[in-house]
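Hey all, quick one. A colleague (J.T.) asked me to put the 6-chloroguanine job into the tracker so the inputs and the structure tokens live in one place instead of scattered across chat threads. No bug as far as I know, just bookkeeping. Sequence used:
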Amino acid sequence: MRIDILTILPELLEGPFSASIMKRAQEKGLAEIHIHNIRDYSTNKHKQVDDYQYGGGAGMVMTIEPIALLIDKLLSERKYDEIIYMTPDGVILDQKIANTFSLYENLIILCGHYKGVDERIREIYITKEISIGSYVLSGGELAAAVLTDSLVRLIPGVLNDETSALTDSFQDNLLSPPVYTRPPEYKGHKVPDVLMSGNFELIEKYREEQAYKRTQERRPDLLK
Ligand code: 6GU
């Protein structure tokens, strides 16, 4: 999978993809993540990428030209499955969306800033608009990192057995059961006996029950 992320703040995206699973996915050649600085496509002498909004009001709007030049260049190089705009008024990301997008070959993710992009970028280029939740971030970069992480970890071969995506919370609409490691007792808090029993049938049953109980208590909406 190839993901092209378009941003005016590329430095915000350096960290999330340079460690752990995201780093390994790229080293294994399973994911190619390209960060593009929209400012490099500004033809303005001050390398400006935003302007005042028509109709007045506080807040700048990202201008069409540099974004359009960059997207047109990418589109001339390969076909893209989706051109995604990260925006608080988009569809809220969930595991189902992540599963669908993870099957794609090439994605563009556009990060918004200030008041967002000129609406005509959305009309002309954008095929999906995604939010990561009902709160406001300073820009789309952190949201793009969240979306990218959720997709890349689903690509076959990225995770090993230990970190298998199949046992993740949400993959089966259930939260994960509690987990324990050594020591067997800490400040009077004991590891449940069943996990020490060596009886894998009982252990599996216990984990399923706990997953269900946790979901019932914390996220009953997932069970509907
Ligand atoms: Cl995608 N962008 C911004 N700026 N804020 C958000 C968001 C996106 N999703 C939730 N809040």
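Adding what we noticed when we looked at it: Residues 86-88, 112, 131-133, 135-137, 139-140, 143 surround 6-chloroguanine (CB under 6 Å). The beta strands are 2-7, 32-37, 50-52, 60-62, 82-92, 106-111, 128-131, 185-186, 189-190.
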